[in-house]
Amino acid sequence: RSRREPPGPRIGRGRSAAPVNDDDLFTDPVTAASAAAEAIRGLNHATAPAAAGLGCPADAQAVLAALAMTAARVPQALAQLRRFLDTEVDAGRVRIVDGEHAGDPAGMLAETGNLLDHAVISARGLAQLLDAAADTLTWAAAIGLDTDNGEREH
Hints:
By secondary structure, the protein is mainly alpha-helical. It is built from four helices and two strands, in the order ααααββ.
């Protein structure tokens, strides 16, 4: 199935994807989601070998633990998005103007709900796997040169 842009502008608030200020992160879901995406983009750059952003296994463990926490928070946001969509469709405030579910908000909601349910399961699994990966690094340490005995743990 094709994923193309709708033929006209999306009906919404037309907000910018760039964060305006920290308060928006807790009041504007579009800004918050965009900031999360940009943070992961920054992490991708910071963990690249050329960036030398990781100095020891403890750094990798801390990143994995933070990512596990991030993934663990995703299911709540997805559930809240689903409740919002349920409410809007049930109240008759959504119309589908084109595409696979044209004229069928309930059909769109059923498919979206199913996909969100699977995404929640996947996010929970991701959180568990990342947490387990972080745990395996708990006792890992870097070895470097030390003036006393030739080894140093970080």
